[in-house]
Prior knowledge:
This protein has about 475 residues and is mainly alpha-helical. The protein is built from 17 helices and four strands. Strands 2-3-1-4 form a four-stranded antiparallel β-sheet. The two termini are about 80 Å apart.
Amino acid sequence: MAQFGTKPQTEMAPAADFGRVSAPQVSRVSIPGMRERAVSRLRLLWCERKFLSRAAVAGLLLGTLLAFLLPKRFESTAELMPPDGQSNSGMALLAGLASRTGNGLGPFASDLLGMKSSGALFIRVLRSRTVEDRLIERFQLMKVYGARLDEGARRTLAENTSISEDRKSGVITIAVMDGDPSRAAALAQGYVEELDRVVAQLSTSSARREREFLEDRLKAVQADLEAAEKEFSQFASKNTAIDIKEQGKAMVEAAANLEGQLIAAKSELEGLKKIYTENNIRVRVTRARIAELQSQMEQSEGKGESTSSTDRSDSSVSLYPSIRKLPLLGVAYADLYRRTKVEEALYEALTQQYELAKVQEVKETPTVKVLDPPKIPKQKSFPPRLEIMFLCTFLVFAGAAVVTLAKAHWDGLDAQDSGKVLAQEVLQSANAHMPWATPNGSRLQAMTHRIWIRRVRRNGSSNGAEDLQDRL
């Protein structure tokens, strides 16, 4: 029993050992197999080195031809400084309004509220159809690009233009590629100029709105001031009302002086009458002087004049208004004078506010500051000839190696292999529908066969179709 119990243990031990060593044995077997396959493929490629060398030379020639046939392209670059922080208030307001409208501009509006708003707005303006259309019209790009429609010219211009922003510094880079180096630099400069113009035109800052309002209001106040000044000057000239207050004071003093002289003259006349007769020269002179003083008194007091109107007739004897008319003239004069002064004060205040609004608008308007202006490139940026030559050589060489390995794999398959038999059937069926095959009842194949025969006969090879069919 003890021997019977120990036999399974001795028999199971090799099984456990076999489980532990099975994986290394499989890997040891698979690694040499992989090495043998790799070595056999390398040996096959080495045997076909002439074919691969010819393919590499053909790829090199093809790459060289392609590199020198591609047209040259020149790139001009302009770099713009990010706008000042003072100009972010107007764009932040614009971003807030855009986010409220709910028209799909939420992410864009959220960017506008941050420090990256100015750069994102500038890039969007540069990519706008307005800027592109102005550049197309300015540089006649439809003729340059050979486009019949504006959309084609816009598409080509967008493909030739690269606009990017450095997230850390905020510097915007505008790179324009063109076949003419001078036109490339001019287009880059045109982007900068059109950006500055569009931003100035579409600025929606509060200072701009205030400036526009003050500008309109200033024009209206200026017209009212001119009308008030004209009406006041006409009234003063017609009524000889230079300064009613001073004129009234002067006329009252003059009337008092005349009255005093009149009283003195009358007293003198009474004294002369007691001494002389009425025909005495001194009596008559004094009487005439009294009459003149009374006439001046009546004229200054305005006796006999109508007080219903403040306008004086041209037949008036006195050059200045009478005391009787001064109160009426004073009311009209004061109204016109006050209106003129109010319009003057309003005009001065609006003028000051208008100038301040203009300064504030300049501060809030995003200005385009050029860090590096575009220059005419001296060296082409496309095509990279050396890279094209190496790439074509590598691709043709790799393609030739793949064809060589595929052909060797195909030849190594058994003739009775199901995959190989299926592939041959598919190729034969496709070959039967080719133009060089005899018509098989299909109208399309018959038509292509006739075209093929005509082409072969035109090339002088009557048996070309049969030879090609035999080879296939």
